[in-house]
Amino acid sequence: MKKRTALALALFTIGAAGAAQAECTLKDPPAIPDGASANQDEMLTAQQAVKAYVAETQEFLSCLEFEGKGRSGGDWTRRYNDASTRMEKLAADFNKQLRAFKSK
Prior knowledge:
- This protein has helices at 2-21, 40-68, 75-102.
- It is mainly alpha-helical.
- Helix 2 runs antiparallel to helix 3 (75-102).
């Protein structure tokens, strides 16, 4: 039993070290349909994609915070700010198209 625990702990430690050294990456934001001409299925699909992207971006921001811990400025700060701005713009764009969709 102790051997299994030690093995599990060793594997977890190796996995955590690998994750800590992994590069923080973020995909491109999803496309938002035109609310004036989109159907309900397209808007629901877009909503799910936006929610997934926001969650992914939040994970990315956490990764960058961990990566930049103890360092001021630098590339990680720019990447953090760019990702935050991109996420906010995506949410605003989706909300604008959702209002257009609901006004039909």
